[in-house]
Amino acid sequence: MSGSLVIWGIWDAVYQRCTRLRYVEKGRNIFRIVLLRYRGETLTTSDNRQICAGDLILRLHIHNYRFACECKGIEDDLKLVLLLRRLVANSMPQLAEYLAALPQANEIKGIVGTTTLNKGVQHLGFSIADVPTNWFFRYKHWYLKFLLLFIHRNGWNRMKNYNQRTTLSRVYMSKEELLRRYLPSS
Q1: CA nearest neighbour of 144 among 153, 132, 155
Q2: Cβ distance 109 to 37 under 8 Å?
Q3: Where's the YkoP-like domain (predicted)?
Q4: Range with lowest mean pLDDT among 30-34, 76-80, 101-105, 159-163
């Protein structure tokens, strides 16, 4: 597994340089983000705000390589889920501070991510919606399935049953909800 992680680490560094992804805080935050215009169906958040096509959003990406490194040696599925949940929960306040400090903060409608790791995210303030069934999301589902090979010790066995147990979903939250929940009071 460590040889695969070394190769992945090299690929991740190249990928980082070739994309617009930015770290919220490198080494301390599980998210990487990109500021962009939302393209998709209208999303209604848990606080009844809408994110519509053309709205400015922060697109969330879990830093999968970092997560894989954190998971190294963990075999228990429950421990993996709890680790990811803790990493995400601990990263949310920094994400709120990052968004609030952006020059475009007033224009941003919310945060949106796509993941198969959507169980229990409502507790963190996220809403969930299905993704369209197009080639891009089929590819993304395959890619996330492939990541299991690197993250989970029994990745090959897990990958065989992956489609039956997981669905690809959008997770999203309004800017107001993010700031209300996670921005420290000043």
Answers
A1: 155
A2: no
A3: 5-182
A4: 159-163
Query: pLDDT tens digits for 81-126?
Result: 788 889 999 999 999 999 999 999 999 999 999 877 667 788 899 9
CA angle (65 as vertex; 61, 66 as ends), nearest 5:
85
Strand partners, 97: none
Taking only the tens place, the pLDDT of each residue in 32-53 is: 999 999 998 999 999 999 999 9
Token pair recorded at residue 166: 């997981």
Q: Which residues of 102-116 are buried (b: 16+ CB within 10 A; e: fewer)?
A: eeeeeebbbbbbbbb
CATH number at 2-182: 3.40.630
Instruction: Report the alpha-carbon distance of residue 121 to residue 75 in Å, rounded.
Output: 22
Number of H helices, E strands in the chain: 6, 8
Taking the C-alpha atoms of residue 51 and residue 110, their distance in angstroms, rounded to an integer, is: 7
Amino acid at site 2:
S
Terminal-residue alpha carbon distance, the chain: 45
